[in-house]
Amino acid sequence: MDDSGPQRRWFWATLVLSSVSLVTLVFGLWELVENRFFRAVDYVTLHYLYITRGIASSLLLAFWAAWYVLRQRRRTEEELRRSRERYRGLLEVSPGAVALYDAALRVIEWNAAAERLYGLSKDEAVGQPLSTVPPEKEAELREFLRRVAGGQSVLDAETLRRDTTGTTLEVQLSLLPFREAGGQSYFLEVTSDIRERVRMRQTLLELEKLTSMGKMAAGTAHHLNTPLAAMLLRVQMMRERNHQAGCAGDLERLESGLRFCQHFVQRLLEFSRQVPLQKQPQAVEPLLRSVVSFLSPPVLAKRARIQLELKTANGAQVFADRNQLEALFSVLLSNALDAIAPEGTIVVRSRRLAGDQLEIEISDTGCGISAADFPHVFEPFFTTKGPGKGTGLGLAIARNIVREHGGSIHLRSHASEGTTAIVELPLHKGTRGDAGEQS
C-alpha cells in the first residue's frame, strides 16, 4: 500500500502548525517587550516597531520553514539511500542469477550471481540486449514473456542458457512480472545452475538401464549355457567318429570357439550371481588372470594388449571376498581399457612391500586425467566419459572395496600421459612369512 499521500499531508500539517506557533510566540514576546520598554514612545517610533516586528517574524518564519524542509528532505534522501542499499544487498546475496529486462530484452539489473554464472559483468550487461539466450530457445522465451504479460507466472522451468564462452548451461528458470511505481513494466528472470542435478538424473537413468541389462545378461547366460554345452558335446563326438584329416582342423577350431563361448558365459554367471560377502584367503595371481580372461572380448575388439607381470604375486594371498576383488580389478581394468586408444597397452604389475603389503599396479597408455578433474575422480557419479559410457560409480566402488579389505588405493596421472592405479592390500598371514623369499 502506497503511504506517500498521508505522509505528505502530515508533513504540510506539521509545517503549518509549527509556523503558526512560531509567529504567535514572536508576536507575544514582542508585545511584552513593547509594554515593558516602549509604552511612552510616539506614534512614528511605534509604527517602526510594528514594521520591524513584521520583518523579523517573516525572516524567522522563512528560516524556520527552509530548515524544516531541508531537514525533511535529507531524512527522505537518507531513507531512500538505505532502501536502495538494502534492495541492492538483497539482490547481490540472492543465490539465483537475477536479470531484470524490459519487453525489448534490454537489461536493467544484473546481480553478482548472474556475473558468476554467465561470466558477464554488470557493466557489460546493463543497457545491452540479453545475450544469454541460445538461438534455439528464443521462441520459448517469447512464449514465456507472452504468458507473464498475460498475468501468468513461469516458475521452475528447465531450459538452456549460455555464457560468454558459448557454453550451454542447463538452468532452472522463473520469470515474473515487475512493475515500478511510475507504471513501467519489466520482466524479472531468476535462473539457477542445475547442471549437476541433470547429470545426476542422467546417471541414475544409466544405472537403471545398466541394472536391467545386467539382469537380462544373466538370464541370457542361463539360456545359452545349456545349448552351448550340448553343441560342444556333439562336436567332441563328431571328432571322435570322423577320421578325415580335412574336417579335423575345422572341428578343432569349432570346438575351441564353443569352449571360449562357454567359458565366457560361465564367467558372466559367476559375476551376476549375488551371494553374501564371505572373506577367505584368495590367491591374487589366478584371480587377476581370471578377470583379464573375462575382459578378453572387449580387449580383442580394441586390439589392445594386456601385459601381466605377476611374478611377485605368485603364491600371494589376501583375506578377501572373491566377488568384491573381481569387481575391484574389473573396474580398474575396464577404466584402463576405455582410456587407451586402439592397439594400446595395459600393464598389470605386482610388488611385495614392507609391512606385509601387496601392491597391484595397473598402468595404461591412455589419455590421462586433467588436473581439474583429478581431485574429483573418486566422487560418486563423477565421470569424464561421454553420455551413456559411464556411471561415475566405478572408482567410488573400488575405493570402498579396498577400504573394506584394510587397504588403500590412489592414482597417478597426467593428461595425455596415461594413468596408473595403485592398490595396496594386506597379505594373508599364511603368505606373509614367504614374502622375503618370493619377492
Please explain how this structure is put together.
With 439 residues, the chain is α+β, with helices and mostly antiparallel strands. The protein folds into four domains: 4-92; 94-193, Beta-Lactamase (2-Layer Sandwich); 196-274, Helix Hairpins (Orthogonal Bundle), CATH 1.10.287; 276-439, 2-Layer Sandwich (Heat Shock Protein 90), CATH 3.30.565.10. The chain has helices at 4-37, 43-93, 112-118, 122-125, 138-149, 195-241, 245-272, 284-294, 296-301, 322-339, 394-404, 429-432, 435-438, and strands at residues 97-101, 107-110, 154-162, 168-179, 185-193, 279-283, 305-309, 317-321, 345-353, 357-364, 408-413, 419-426. The strands form three sheets. It has a five-stranded antiparallel β-sheet, with helices on both faces. It has a five-stranded mixed β-sheet with strand order 7-9-10-12-11, covered by helices on one side. A two-stranded antiparallel ribbon has the order 6-8. Helix 1 runs antiparallel to helix 2. It is elongated.
